[in-house]
Amino acid sequence: MTTALQIITKAMQKVGVLVKSESPSADESADALDMLNDILASWSNDSIFIISRVTESFTLAAGTSSYTIGASQTFNTTRPIYIVEAHIRQNNTDYPVSIEDDEIYQRVTDKTLQSIPYMLNYSNGFPTGTIKLYPSPAEAYTLFITSEKELTSFALADTVSLPPGWKKALIYNLAVELAPEYGQNVDPVILKIANDSKGAITQAIMKNRTMDMQPSLNVGRFSVYRGY
User: Fold this and answer.
1) Is the pLDDT score of 157 beyond 80?
2) Is 84 within a domain?
């Protein structure tokens, strides 16, 4: 268990602007907290930093093909960054739903058809995303989606439980970010540890993932319409 303040203090010690008996000022802590949360937000855009994928279920409305997703939206949950998999469940039977990009979805000419949806298009807007289904659900089916969500940001005094290796990675990568703010050159040893610790946590995550391509490349994912 650790706090953001402890991570910040250790990072500033690595930079050399604090000794072990010192603590950052309120202004220094606030600035460093912004940097720490910026690191987490940046890592959220890379699938190999997402610790776990989340599977959720939502009830569809008959005849409705478009649903907003996000806090206080039709699908009330944290906005997904990337939807990995989707399926429809009816009478204890699961029907796969293909995840398709905008271009494929726009090629559908008759969007009034109602049946069990087999195509999902996700518009990753911010702060609200939009899920569009084809065909429109003929009944109140249950939609299951497995997605990747943004890494949770820190508050200064919150006590958090981090997976193995994450505390070290955050301390050293924050130290790299902080160094220029204090007119310090990044120590090559600090930089190497920062990179190595990032690599270690991504390897741990990828061990439990299938060998699919990164979603940002938009290749390597099978589509019933265009193959791989």
Assistant:
1) yes
2) yes
13: amino acid identity, one letter? Q
* Residue 118 in domain: yes
Per-residue pLDDT, 216: 43
pLDDT mean over 23-52? 94
| Residues 24 and 136 both lie in one domain | no
Q: How many domains does the chain have?
A: 2
Which of 128, 129, 144 lies closest to 56 in space, CA to CA? 144
**Pair (137, 69) in one structural domain:** yes
Question: Could you tell me if 91 and 127 lie in one domain?
Answer: yes
Where are the strands (E) in the chain, listed by range? Answer: 2-3, 54-59, 66-70, 75-76, 80-90, 93-100, 114-115, 119-123, 129-134, 136-137, 142-149, 159-160
The reply to whether 89 and 120 lie within a common domain is: yes
Pair of tokens at residue 148: 């990747």
Average model confidence (pLDDT) across the chain: 90
- Distance CA(227)–CA(18), nearest Å, equals 56
The structure's pTM equals 0.80
Residue 11: is it exposed, middle or buried by C-beta count within 10 angstroms (0-12/13-18/19+)?
buried
Quickly list DSSP for 135-147: SEESS-PEEEEEE
Per-residue confidence (pLDDT) for residue 212, from 0 to 100:
53
CA distance 157 to 202: 26
